[in-house]
Amino acid sequence: MPRVGGHLPDDYGLSLTVLVPTASTENPVNTGDTLVFTTEAAYSAGPAAAGAAVQLIAKHPVSDPYTPLGVHAFGFSRVSKVKFSGTAPTIGASVAADGNGGVQAAAEGNGTRVLYVDAAGGFCEVAFP
């Protein structure tokens, strides 16, 4: 009898590319390693600490901080580029609607996560649940 379930094709779910600033030949990221977003830079990730909620899983190995790493992202359904008003949100912050068709920094975490900010351009890229 065939087994039901298992790994889904890469087309399902949210996939991203990130950089892992701590990756090196001494500390490589291996296929299947669990990761979390960090706030060091745009689209940055690092190894998940014991007890941390898994946000990303590596699709392939990397052994330097400059090679983009493909990851499966969990807890988010889409990344969108949106305009912001007021003070530019920071990487890792949550956003909320600003009432004018854009977003603003949220007063408290709400499941969204800013992954990239272009303060001069007035937009950010946000992972939405």
Structure, described:
With 129 residues, the chain is mainly beta. The strands form 3 sheets. It has a 5-stranded antiparallel beta sheet, with no helix packed on it. A 3-stranded antiparallel beta sheet has the order 6-10-9, with no helix packed on it. The protein has no helices and 10 strands.
Helices, strands, pairings?
Elements: E1 14-18, E2 34-37, E3 45-47, E4 56-58, E5 69-73, E6 78-83, E7 95-97, E8 103-105, E9 113-118, E10 123-128
Antiparallel strand pairs: 1-5, 2-3, 2-4, 4-5, 6-10, 7-8, 9-10
What's this entry about, in short?
The chain has strands spanning 14-18, 34-37, 45-47, 56-58, 69-73, 78-83, 95-97, 103-105, 113-118, 123-128. With 129 residues, it is mainly beta.
Unreliable segments of 5+ consecutive residues: none
Structure class: mainly beta
Mean pLDDT: 94
Q: Tell me what portion of residues adopts beta-strand conformation.
A: 25-35%
